[in-house]
Amino acid sequence: SHGSELVTPKRLSKGRLVQLEEEGTYECSVTGLVFEASERVLVRYSVLSWSKFGAFLHDSWKFAGPIFNVDTVNKDASVLKSIQFPHSICLADTDNDMTFSVLHIKGNRPVIEPTVDHSGSHVKWNVTSLSPVGPIIQTSQAVEHHGVVLVYKQLTPDNNSYSFHVYLGTNSASDIKELKFTLAVTKMKGYFEAFFEQHPPFKLSLIEINTEETVWSATIREGRQRSSSPSEDELAFKRTRMQDEPSEKQLLQVAKRLGKEWKQVAIFLDVTSKELDNIQTAETDVTMQKLKMLLMWKNRNSGEATARNLLESVKELDDLPNE
């Protein structure tokens, strides 16, 4: 999405190391960092904790994504022209006037520096020097983040009850892939606990308080974990399903997954603003509004309204949730 070459870094005990072979733009496949290099350079980087640097944020400044320590090995920092930092801020609400910057720690002195651009997933910063840097945002309003839910089963001595720890994190590759759920980390992060006396299956849901809209749900089932390598039969089945037209029930599941960015999805599916207004006037329930928008797309593309074509239509939309 950034017109960059995807690179896989080597893992070090204190971070990651990646060789940028020549002048160009490169995206780390693990952290989502994007480097613009002027020549061949070896880059070393690690994810830091906002618990250490968050105290430098005052007034209406808030963190917008992970903070990184980036360094070039045996070369001046100037060989990196720019870095794009992944952020998790939801930009679907256009009424919320927000300004991106970066917090740059120079020595022990925090400096707020301007950015040159941002997208639905990244904040671009022209390199001045290399030391801890992370994307921040200035707004007087509450900030919504794209999120991920991690559920861990808590073992009980008698095995007669079911206790789960539910963690909420930002939907950032850096946060998810760098996360180490050791005992020390889980004590720091905090969690919700879900306790069940009955046997699985049962359903866990997260519900938006103001709208009572379900933003995430999952069914907890008992059984062994499936292999991470699907069989040829499973792959063939998935390919076939992608070619089928989704049913109204399946589109309802898609509608439930969409958040505030659903109107942007409508634009990518060629639903006009007037048609959106008509849908909202005729239907008060937000989930049903989303469903009717998707059904309008399906009816207009009869015979070609497959799951694959739906995915292709919205693949350029940065704010779309992974689900």
Automatic annotation (TrEMBL):
Span of the signal peptide: none
Origin species: Neolamprologus brichardi
Gene3D superfamilies (UniProt xref): Death Domain, Fas
Keyword Cytoplasm included in the entry's annotation: yes
Pfam families noted in UniProt: Death, FIIND
Keyword Zinc-finger: no
Localization annotation: Cytoplasm, Cytosol
Protein name as catalogued: Si:dkeyp-97b10.3
Residue ranges constituting the Death domain according to the UniProt record: 247-318
Domain FIIND: 1-281
